[in-house]
Amino acid sequence: MDLKSLKKQESKRKISKGYMWALFCAVFWGIWYLPGTVVWVLNPFDEMYSAIAETGGDGTALIITAVLITAFNALTVMLALMLWNGVLGKYKELGRTLKEFHPCSKWFFLASIFGGPMAILGSFIAMGFIGGAFAAVAALLYPVVGSILAYYWYGEKISKRAAIGIGVIIVGGITIFGGGLLTELSSGNVQWIGYLGGLMAAAGWGIEGAIAGKGLDISEPDVGLTLRFLGENIIWWIIVVPVLALLGYPMYSFALQAFEPMTMLVLIFAGITFGFCYVCWYKSFPLIGVGRGQGIGNLYGLFAIIFIFLFFGDVPEWSIIVGGTLCVIGSFVMFTEDTSALETLRGE
Amino acid sequence: MSGNRPIKFRILEILLDGKERWNYEIVSKIQEEYDMQGNYNRDSINFDIIELASGGMLKDVEQKVDEDGIYKKSFLLHKYVITDFGKARGSDACLRYV
Question: How confident is residue A341, by pLDDT bands cut at 50, 70 and 90?
Fold first, then answer.
């Protein structure tokens, strides 16, 4: 075969593989909202919620319960990623990367602060207060946060096309948040904490992406992601959970009760889907470019709505469907720029 | 010093001199230094190079068909050179300790 047709074949193979990874990411990410929503009504989390609500009020109870759920989510994601790295034979590389704290792994630990206590906790709060479909679609705003940060932080240019995409996503965001708020304002019962959770998810993932990218540039993504979740586990199990326990919340007694078959099954399901959605996301980038990878990855919002409809029979509000569609369209507009132009932008 | 830094650090370090190198040259050097024999490791190291190139740190400057099977028979071979961005990231990560 000649050079030209081989080049064509190679790029075809790369592109189809890349789209496959990105699509897997969207499916896994979308499915994650199923266990994320179900876990709220399972023992011990429902009991924990009512036990704390009796003395501390609904808002506190929800946040404390969300902390424990997020902590377990981080733990099962870590297990899934350790298994994945074992299969790939990357434990040695994991050790080598962990040791490079200053140039590399510090970025993962920093990213985990925004990814964990902000984005994932916010997502669980939004799922608990408002619902899975809202939580999924609200987080679609993350690219806006990410690109604005990159603009101020490393002076990355925002092209006209990207600006149009950001505009469409913001209109989508206003629809998602505004639609739900209007209905609730008229009924006089606004779940402010849930909406705050949605914003935390969007802002947290935007910031996480901007920071983690600095470390992921120069490390293997399978390894980098594992370190990012190592950071999150440290935050929850060594810092936050013990502090809350010292403050008198029954963290450990309920945490021990989580080792029930059904609860564990749902938590492990959450860990596998979430862990692999991250892995697939990063695998797609070198093959089809970060832009298209993120654009297709963002289809998760629509997948989440479809899965939630199929499994729970919940038909989401029109504002969530319209707003979610706008966000996905916006991310396609924003991300599907000519990649060759993007590469040179970054190289200089 | 070799063999105990993350693989992508080492790849950047090898290319920091600004010379163009074929992917099979880099891959076999890493395989030897890190004691990572076998096709699976070979492909995984090559994917690291592809990732560095897509991150804008390396540039794919030349391709040729692997007629003789030096790397993978009748597949494409790629020649890479480090970019300015790659030099900045590479020296940031690698040179501080050298």
Answer: very low
Position with higher pLDDT, A183 vs A238: A238
The tally of domains found in chain A comes to 1
Q: Please tell me the distance from the alpha carbon of residue A12 to that of residue A10, in angstroms, as a whole number.
A: 5
The minimum CA-CA distance between A344 and chain B, rounded to whole Å, is 7
Chain B: which residues have CB within 8 Å of chain A?
Answer: 4-9, 12, 34, 40-41, 44, 47-48, 50-51, 53-57, 59, 63-65, 74-76, 83-86, 89-90, 92-94, 96
**DSSP-derived 3-state class of residue A13:** helix
Nearest C-alpha of chain A: how many angstroms from B74? Answer: 7
For the ranges A105-109, A110-114, B62-66, B91-95, the lowest mean pLDDT is seen at B91-95
- Within-domain flag for B79: yes
Q: Which domain holds residue B30?
A: 7-97
User: Is A218–B75 a contact, with Cβ atoms under 8 angstroms apart?
Assistant: no
- The answer as to whether B2 is a domain residue is no
Residue A101: per-residue pLDDT: 84
Residues 6+ apart with CB under 8 A from A178: A319
The candidate with the shortest Cα–Cα distance to A111, out of A243, A222, A219, A214, is A214
Residue B1 counted as domain residue:
no
User: How many structural domains are present in chain B?
Assistant: 1
pLDDT at A282 over 60: yes
Residue A73 CA to residue A278 CA, distance in Å, equals: 14
| A20 domain residue, yes or no | no
CATH number, domain of B85, equals 1.10.10.10
